[in-house]
Amino acid sequence: MNSKKVFEDQELEKKSKEIFETFKRSSLGASPYLKTRVLAELDAKKRHQTVVFWKRTAIASTASLFLLIVALLFMFNREPSEGFNAFTGQPLLVKVSISDIKDYNVAYAEVELPEKVTFYSKTNLDVMGARSLTLFNEPSDKDLPFVIRSEEKGVKEVKVTLYDDSDQVILEKKINIKFVNHG
Length: 183
Fold this sequence. Notes:
Number of domains: 2
Number of strands: 8
Radius of gyration: 45 Å
């Protein structure tokens, strides 16, 4: 039995060798254009990847540049807000300029203060502690000055409304004042 198995193994080995020899002798080979086609396909893939990379890079850089321009415009083209910094508990002189509206005849102004902000005056005790005041204007005046004081920190909005002789509103100004604790 053992010799039969050895014989079969030898036959199988012999047949396998013959098949491989036949394959080596045969002219079965790849087409001479196959290499060219494969290389062309690989080159096209590489070119496509390069084009996609540059398109993505162009879109990303354009978007970044756009965001940068918008941020710069937002930062530098803001309307200047009228604002001041002041200390709590200390008087602050506020001057509203009316020289830029000289074409109108400013007769008077009404000043309204927010909560915890009051007018301040050493000489006129009626004004002391008030939160609204009417200031009359002389034709030669270029400013409407008033003194205020806040007992509370934070940003406070002072509203100034200018009127002409016929009680028509000429201009409304809102002045933001940031009060901080002293020292």
